[in-house]
Design a protein that fits this description.
By secondary structure, the protein is mostly helical. The protein contains 14 helices and no strands. It has 2 domains: 55 residues; 208 residues, MetI-like fold (Orthogonal Bundle), CATH 1.10.3720.10. Helix 4 runs antiparallel to helix 11.
Length: 279
């Protein structure tokens, strides 16, 4: 009886996981199938979940409209912004987290809580000050306007600080006996032992920079300087929208995100689990 109950519990868990995975994958599957259909097939009363037959005309039209909608340039812009933004975010957040976790100075806890309190402020509230700052610096239509405003983030500082506090201080004391400075401790002790947390933050930062829409929308007005999320709006007109082309560009924009998560999902899970081991 007990064995049968365990069997059904296991079946129920597997079924729940399958349903959850299907619910998460359904929008992606729908987006992919719509990108492989013509406009006439998309607007059928009962659209097919799998196109019959498969057509790549939407992708061909996207590449042919390079002068009006340079999708490859948008893709390269997104790669540059997301790559540089991710690297700088991890660097700055790890340095701040090291100071909060390992250094002792007056007002450390108060300053940390002030940084943490910025999590409750929506990003839309600060968009006007950011716009005015970019205007004063004459940064419109530049890559620094797409990268720099998205660098500060209390989430990364909090995540790495919690992980750094789980590292035994015995290692730090042994390194100090050997004459290691704070910079040496940070570079040769803390960072190598924090690879799961760093990978987790890097993935979250990459997703944030890659999917960001509001900042590129106000920071650039040149068509060639747009990123993929903003460039996607060119295919959505006021009176007419080319949904096949929109879905094709959306698939291209989603591929790096999906591949990144599939490659580093173990690091994400391990980093999140180990971050909460110590308060």
């Amino acid at each position: 009886m007990k064995r049968r109950r365990l069997h059904w519990e296991r079946v129920g868990l597997h079924g729940g996981l399958a349903i959850t995975a299907l619910l998460f994958a359904a929008p992606v599957i729908w987006m992919l199938t719509m990108s492989l259909q013509t406009e006439a097939e998309i607007f059928q009363p009962i659209p097919h979940w799998w196109p019959q037959p498969i057509t790549l005309s939407n992708y061909a039209q996207v590449l042919q409209r390079a002068e009006e909608a340079p999708v490859l340039r948008w893709f390269l812009n997104s790669v540059l912004v997301a790559g540089c933004g991710t690297g700088l975010t991890v660097l700055l957040a790890s340095m701040a987290a090291y100071a909060f976790a390992r250094l002792r100075f007056p007002g450390r806890d108060l300053l940390f809580w002030m940084v943490l309190s910025t999590l409750i402020i929506p990003g839309q509230v600060t968009i006007i000050p950011v716009f005015l700052i970019l205007q004063k610096l004459h940064w419109f239509n530049t890559y620094q306007a797409l990268i720099v405003p998205g660098l500060p983030g209390a989430f990364g500082v909090f995540l790495l600080r919690q992980f750094f506090r789980t590292i035994p201080r015995d290692l730090e004391e042994a390194a100090r006996i050997d004459g290691c400075s704070h910079a040496g401790l940070y570079a040769h002790i803390i960072l190598p032992l924090s690879r799961p947390a760093l990978a987790t933050l890097a993935i979250f930062a990459f997703l944030g920079h890659w999917n960001d829409f509001l900042l590129p929308l106000i920071a650039v007005n040149d068509t060639e300087m747009r990123t993929l999320p903003v460039g996607l709006t060119l295919f959505l007109g006021r009176y007419d929208s080319q949904y096949g082309l929109v879905m094709a560009v959306a698939v291209l924009a989603s591929l790096p995100v999906i591949l990144t998560f599939l490659l580093f999902q173990k690091h994400v899970i391990r980093g999140v689990v180990m971050t909460g081991l110590k308060g």
